[in-house]
């Protein structure tokens, strides 16, 4: 009985040793992998940092302006040529179909909310009189 | 064999088996406990094993739109063990050639053949490859970070510099050192790189056109106090860490104080309007120069015998402004300027802020000269902050270089009504006065011109001018202030020989406004544009 138990214990100890060795080896390999992955993350982060800085350098406005002046036949855009969608005239309303006024009435309420609003215009210039001194 | 003789070895065997079993049980208990710890409390020590990678010391600086301004980039520091070299002189020559280090210094430090010597800091990947190709023994690369400024010269003064150990030594690198150190997220500054470029480009063109010595300019949000651009020319290349001919590390906007001339009339008029010592329908006699002892106050050009109060401002009459300032008197004028922050040092995130110089004795003659911006010297940023308070509804702002999301709620210095009147007066300067060249159709630019004689050897040199213009737009609801100052411009044929603020700085401000207004989303008032194309 004792002999059987001894063999059993020795066998268990052997299996445990093998298991522990395997776990220890896997942990060591995982640790190496982890270190390599971390190093590679840092390397990628460094590369991204360098690329980000390079991108900022090549897209700086002074460089873009110099390149456009050298290679493109562009001129400064006068502010009067700039506009926004809000400042464009409203598209003309559809003509009343020939089916009669009933159709126009039917679409009229739907058109109401999109009636163009007059843009708010601030009064300009001084409220006092400007006196020409003639000098 | 007796029973006792047989049982004695059995007892020994049993006790040995018991001991072995106890040891096995203890070993298994330790393993079980460790497994339990790893499974329940995490990997612990094992996960943190290995040296932590070197990280950047400082966070990125980005502009208000996320464009990169400054970043720590990975580089290598190269160290050598001179004892490992066969020929120290040859090694010094080759390393100097590959890295750009000083060959004489290397020869000197290698000659001792002992210790650990720094060859060069901040090697680029190309330099590192060059060193590797030399095949020299005893070399060690240590990973480090070096601050890099992708925008180059623009923003060099404001952003500043770090030392080789990545500690801030000037500009915002020093002023925001504690905030940026050890931080991972980028720090958003108030600058807009596009606006900075436009401002600097127009200033450079103006300097070239008028053969000026230097120039300075800024763009300020009058509600939040954010500085969108701040340029001082000449500037320098921050990445080379050495100054080329003509470069300057001096930030004229904050480190220097100037007698700014007539743009200071804004404050004389703001005080007069706020204290109701003038009426706009009043006429001021400007027929004769004013005399105070040995001082004579003249106008730059002849404006006739009298001017209305608005036109005194619009035509920038010294004689008229002096009379208006005298109604407040020295004590009240001093108190008003102090309220605007023009007599005490101003604090911002920029550490290089010069304190103002004001008259020691402040009598009538000083009241007069201060009213048109002579006899008092302030740094242009402090002036811009005070001018912003005049137009933004009357509350003081503190300029800031960090992005803000809400308007500042500063101390009230003038009433809303006064601020409105001052905006009308400043608009008048552009529509009917000396600042007409700053006008941009549809953007309601208002402002004030300034032309100051520079003090040279105790007296004023009429040929050395500081010409400036402060512009604000849109005047009906001010958002941005643009200030440009030209140091010693020379008149040209195109300017009919004039080098005043109205001929030099005002057109530059107009061009800046026309370029940045669409970028900043300021809507053009088409009714005004059509009326005044």
Low-confidence stretches of chain A: 111-135
Report low-confidence residues of chain B grouped into runs of 5 or more: none
- Distance from first to last alpha carbon of chain B: 133 Å
Greatest interface: A-B, 48 and 69 residues
Strand/helix succession of chain A: HHH
What about the largest sheet of chain B? Answer: 5 strands, mixed
Share of residues in helices of chain B: 25-40%
Number of strands of chain A: 0
- Shape annotation of chain B: elongated
Whole-Å distance between the termini of chain A?
129 Å
- The computed structural class of chain A is mainly alpha
Please state the average pLDDT score of chain A.
Answer: 74
Q: Could you spell the SSE succession of chain B in H and E letters?
A: HEEHHEHEHHHEHEEHEEEEHHHHHEEEHH
Oligomer class: heterodimer
The number of E-state strands of chain B comes to 14
Question: Gyration radius of chain B, to the nearest Å?
Answer: 34 Å
Number of helices of chain A: 3
Give a written overview of the molecule.
The complex is a heterodimer of chains A (135) and B (533). Helices cover 59% and strands 0% of the residues of chain A. Chain A is mostly helical and 135 residues long. The model of chain A is unreliable at 111-135 (pLDDT under 50). Chain B is α+β, with helices and mostly antiparallel strands and 533 residues long.
List the helices and strands and how they pair.
The complex is a heterodimer of chains A (135) and B (533).
Chain A: H1 2-58, H2 61-71, H3 101-111
Chain B: H1 3-41, E1 61-62, E2 68-80, H2 88-99, H3 103-111, E3 117-123, H4 125-134, E4 139-148, H5 156-159, H6 171-175, H7 177-180, E5 187-188, H8 193-209, E6 214-221, E7 227-233, H9 265-274, E8 283-285, E9 290-292, E10 295-297, E11 306-308, H10 309-314, H11 318-339, H12 364-371, H13 380-391, H14 416-432, E12 446-456, E13 459-473, E14 480-487, H15 505-519, H16 526-531
Parallel strand pairs in B: 1-5
Antiparallel strand pairs in B: 1-2, 2-3, 2-4, 6-7, 6-14, 8-11, 9-10, 12-13, 13-14
Helix pairs in contact in B: 2-3, 2-4, 8-15, 9-11, 9-14, 11-12
């Amino acid at each position: 009985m004792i002999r059987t138990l001894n063999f059993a214990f020795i066998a268990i100890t052997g299996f445990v040793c093998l298991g522990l060795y395997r776990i220890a080896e896997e942990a060591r390999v995982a640790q190496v992998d982890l270190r390599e992955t971390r190093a590679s993350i840092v390397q990628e982060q460094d590369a991204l940092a360098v690329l980000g800085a390079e991108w900022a350098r090549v897209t700086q406005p002074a460089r873009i302006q110099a390149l456009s002046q050298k290679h493109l036949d562009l001129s400064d855009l006068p502010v009067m040529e700039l506009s926004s969608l809000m400042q464009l005239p409203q598209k003309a309303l559809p003509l009343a179909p020939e089916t009669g006024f009933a159709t126009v009435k039917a679409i009229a309420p739907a058109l109401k909310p999109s009636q163009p609003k007059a843009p708010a215009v601030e009064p300009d210039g001084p409220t006092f009189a400007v006196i020409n001194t003639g000098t | 064999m007796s029973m006792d003789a047989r049982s004695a070895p059995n007892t020994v065997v049993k006790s040995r088996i018991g001991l072995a079993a106890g040891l096995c049980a203890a070993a298994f208990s330790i393993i079980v406990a460790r497994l339990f710890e790893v499974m329940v409390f995490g990997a612990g020590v094992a996960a943190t094993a290995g040296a932590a990678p070197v990280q950047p010391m400082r966070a990125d600086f980005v502009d208000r739109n996320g464009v990169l301004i400054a970043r720590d980039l990975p580089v290598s520091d190269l160290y050598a063990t001179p004892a490992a070299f066969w020929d120290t002189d040859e090694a010094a020559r080759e390393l100097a050639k590959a890295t750009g280090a000083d060959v004489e210094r290397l020869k000197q430090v290698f000659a001792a053949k002992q210790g650990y010597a720094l060859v060069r800091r901040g090697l680029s990947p190309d330099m590192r490859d060059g060193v590797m190709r030399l095949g020299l023994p005893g070399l060690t690369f240590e990973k480090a970070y070096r601050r890099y400024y992708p925008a180059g010269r623009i923003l060099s003064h404001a952003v500043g510099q770090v030392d080789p150990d990545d500690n801030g030594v000037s500009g915002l690198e020093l002023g925001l050192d504690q905030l940026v150190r050890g931080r991972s997220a980028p720090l958003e500054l108030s600058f807009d790189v596009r606006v900075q470029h436009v401002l600097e480009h127009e200033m450079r063109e103006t300097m070239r056109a008028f053969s000026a010595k230097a120039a300075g300019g800024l763009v300020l949000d009058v509600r939040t106090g954010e500085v969108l651009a701040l340029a001082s020319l000449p500037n320098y290349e921050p990445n080379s860490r050495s100054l080329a001919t003509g470069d300057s590390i001096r930030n004229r906007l904050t480190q220097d104080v100037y007698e700014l001339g007539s743009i200071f009339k804004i404050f004389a008029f703001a005080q007069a309007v706020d204290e109701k010592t003038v009426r706009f329908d009043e006429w001021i006699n400007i027929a004769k120069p004013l005399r105070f002892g040995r001082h004579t106050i003249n106008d730059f050009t002849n404006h006739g015998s009298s001017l209305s109060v608005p036109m005194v401002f619009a035509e920038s009459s010294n004689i008229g402004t002096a009379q208006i300032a005298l109604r407040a008197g020295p004590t009240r004028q001093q108190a008003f300027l102090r309220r605007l922050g023009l007599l005490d040092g101003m604090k911002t995130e920029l550490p290089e802020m010069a304190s103002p110089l004001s008259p020691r004795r402040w009598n009538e003659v000083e009241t007069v000269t201060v009213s048109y911006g002579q006899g008092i010297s302030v740094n242009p940023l402090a002036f811009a902050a005070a001018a912003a308070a005049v137009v933004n509804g009357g509350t003081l702002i503190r300029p800031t270089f960090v992005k803000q999301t809400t308007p500042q709620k500063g101390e009230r210095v003038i009433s809303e009504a006064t601020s409105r009147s001052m905006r009308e007066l400043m608009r008048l300067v552009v529509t009917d006065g000396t600042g007409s060249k700053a006008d941009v159709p549809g953007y309601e630019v208002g402002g004030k011109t300034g032309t100051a004689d520079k003090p040279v050897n105790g007296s004023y040199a009429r040929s050395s001018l500081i010409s400036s213009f402060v512009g604000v737009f849109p005047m009906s609801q001010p958002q941005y202030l643009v200030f440009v100052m030209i140091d010693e411009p020379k008149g040209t044929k195109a300017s009919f020989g004039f080098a005043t603020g109205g001929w030099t700085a005002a057109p530059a401000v107009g061009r800046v406004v026309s370029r940045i207004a669409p970028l900043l989303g300021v809507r053009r008032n088409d009714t005004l544009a059509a009326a005044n194309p």
